[in-house]
Each structure stands twice: as structure tokens, then as C-alpha cells.
Amino acid sequence: MQLGMIGLGRMGANMVRRLMKDGHECVVYNRSPAPVKAMEGEGAIGASDLDDFIAKLETPRVVWLMVPAAVVDQNIEALVDKLDEGDIIIDGGNSYYKDDIARAKRLQPKGIHYMDVGTSGGVWGLERGYCLMIGGEDASVAHLDSVFKSLAPGVGDVARSRGLAGESSQAEQGYLHCGSVGAGHFVKMVHNGIEYGLMAAYAEGLNILKHANVGKVSQEVDAETSPLRNPEDFQYDLNLADITEVWRRGSVVA
């Protein structure tokens, strides 16, 4: 299948690489030309500007935006008069889900379909695949099933959840049509909240372990710091690298 990608940062470029590896044709555009040239060298079809980008896409066109949330609307505005009825715009970044709903309404009179795809996988996605949380119309999602399947991790060697049997579902493949427009980014929003909460918990916990020897350290007296009670209780010189490594081996926090 053919797909156009706008935005060739670490995520966008690696997604193109993964798609091409699975046989898809990718037309690529970036505001700076160097990433386009680099992707051309790997087999992508480069575009010099948006007009060239649109001209190289077959109808119905599929345009995937992999750009910061702050510039999604200006990219859509630059595209909308160049697209035709039946074309599809996908926002694969981290937009607010209510913005997705508003964009879909603006595009509807022109017959342009809009989809939101929360994309998780980071710099490891090229090899491992991307977890995709999709919002949009049933027909548009079905049309792009082969693209989502190529980007997603697949079942791999992950053990099946208890109670599942028969043919693997989309969710087991690593992508899911969560619901109507906005649903994908709503699910990704909660996903990110959990992710950042986990990172904060790790950071705070490891900081406590790092300073578990504070009882050995001479403390300056100042107006902002409460004096340490029972310094004899904080005498541990801990190896954080070894602790985090042992946690990787069977611990529930790994």
C-alpha cells in the first residue's frame, strides 16, 4: 500500500523504514530537505514541497502527520485545499483528543476523512514495532489495516492472556481500533499519564536509595532543612546499578 509521511524525525523516519521493509511504498516530506534525501537513499519517494508530495500520492491519498501537536493544525491547513474527497489525514502524534474531534468536523464538509493514531514505541519501534491506539471511522480504519499491521509488533513470543483462544485479535497484534475520532488519542493520553507516573515513581524511589547513606554525611544547618533524626538509620551505601538489575529479574516493578 502507498502512504505519505510528513515529519521525518526519529519516530516518523523509523516508521517509514518499517513500512518499506514490509513492502509498502512511502512518499516522504519534511520541512528541512536533509531527512528527505536520507530516506530517498533508503528507497522512499522524496517530495520537494507539499505540491510535489500530493502529486506523487495515488488517490485516495493517505497522509500521515508525524509532527509536534503544536503544528498539526497548520499542516492540515496547508494540505486541505490540495486534497480531494475520500483522502485520509492521520495524526500520529500526541494531540489532545478534543482537537481531533474538531478537526474531523472541519474536514467533513470537504469529504476528507480524519483519523487519530496514538503511537507508542519510541526509538525501539523500528525493530520491535509500534503499539497503535486508533480513532476513526470504521471504513477508514479497515482501509489502512495492512499499514497498521506492518507497524505493529505482531503477536511475537508474548504469551497469550488467560482465556484467549483461536485467531489472534487486533489487540494481540499490537494495534486497536479504540472507537470514533478522538478515541485513539484519549487512550494514548491515559497511557502517557501512566507512563509519566511510572517514571516519576522510579525517579523518586531511586533518589531515596541514592541518598540512603545521608546519615554518614555532615549536614549544614539552615532555615529550610529539617535536621535529620536518627542518622544511624541511614547508613547504607547502595549500588543502584545492581539494584535495578536485580529488579529486572522477576521483580513486579520491572
Explain what you see.
It is an enzyme of class 1 (oxidoreductase). Belongs to the 6-phosphogluconate dehydrogenase family. With 254 residues, the chain is an alpha/beta fold. It folds into two domains: 2-156 and 167-180, NAD(P)-binding Rossmann-like Domain (Rossmann fold, 3-Layer(aba) Sandwich); 189-248, N-(1-d-carboxylethyl)-l-norvaline Dehydrogenase, domain 2 (Orthogonal Bundle). The chain is 41% helix and 15% strand.
Features:
6PGDH_NADP-bd, 254 residues, NADP binding, Rossmann fold, eight-stranded mixed beta sheet, alpha/beta, 6-PGluconate_DH-like_C_sf, EC 1.1.1.44, N-(1-d-carboxylethyl)-l-norvaline Dehydrogenase, domain 2, 11 helices
What does the secondary structure layout of this molecule look like, with pairings?
Blueprint: E1 2-6, H1 10-21, E2 25-29, H2 33-40, E3 45-46, H3 50-55, E4 62-65, H4 72-80, E5 88-91, H5 97-107, E6 113-120, H6 125-128, E7 131-135, H7 138-143, H8 145-151, H9 170-173, E8 175-179, H10 183-210, H11 240-247
